[in-house]
Write a structure and sequence with these properties.
The protein has 185 residues and is an alpha+beta fold. It has helices spanning 11-23, 44-56, 65-82, 92-100, 104-115, 119-137, 142-148, 154-165, 169-174, and strands spanning 2-6, 28-32, 35-38, 60-62. β2 and β3 (35-38) form a beta hairpin. α3 runs parallel beside α6 and α7 packs across α8 (154-165). The longest helix has 19 residues, at 119-137.
Length: 185
């Protein structure tokens, strides 16, 4: 039995959800970003309890098919951004079509309809948040960050960064930069 959960964006989220499932004795078989597999179907009472506990932690149980699909898309994109390296010629359409086994036009239309932002815009926002994180930690220069995030050049990263934040990456770093939580992007 699978259930879908909104706002799971990191390993700590997985641990928190797993802990709540275990407290309710729901025996998770597998817990991953946005998705939980249980060994048996929970009762409506158990689902309600789980929903309340998850809401307290900032998560949300999903029951709508469109919303489940959107969370799957977001999870795939967040995982790609959090991976070690995005290829320079990364194709969002090919990646999502293959991962979801659906036409990109359907995926793109659904996402825009529900989220009010295009997939490309969402992906760019995720990459810029990752760039902010890397700038704040100071372990990489902008050239290394642009390579890691699949930009063709530092200028391309800087241009998108400035469009989104109003600052260049170096100005952001000088000001001590503030980041958004990934689930708020």
């Amino acid at each position: 039995m699978k259930i879908y959960i909104k706002n799971m964006v990191c390993n700590r989220c997985i641990m928190a959800v797993k802990s709540e499932l275990e407290k309710l004795k729901l025996h998770p078989v597998n817990v991953s970003l946005g998705e939980v597999e249980l060994d048996k179907k929970p009762s409506s009472r158990e689902l309600a309890q789980l929903g309340e506990r998850l809401n307290d932690l900032g998560f949300e149980l999903l029951d709508d098919q469109k919303q489940k699909q959107i969370e799957k898309i977001k999870t795939l994109l967040i995982q790609e951004v959090q991976s070690d390296h995005i290829e320079e010629h990364f194709s969002l359409s090919k990646y999502l079509s293959k991962a979801l086994n659906k036409e990109y036009s359907y995926i793109s239309k659904l996402f825009s309809e529900v989220e009010g932002v295009t997939l490309e815009q969402f992906f760019i926002l995720q990459k810029i948040e990752k760039a902010k994180e890397l700038l704040v930690y100071g372990e990489m220069n902008t050239s290394e960050i642009s390579y890691k995030l699949g930009y063709s050049s530092v200028a391309h990263l800087s241009s998108q960064f400035k469009k989104v934040t109003g600052l260049t990456p170096s100005d952001f770093k000088k000001l001590g930069g503030a980041r958004k939580a990934i689930d708020k992007v």
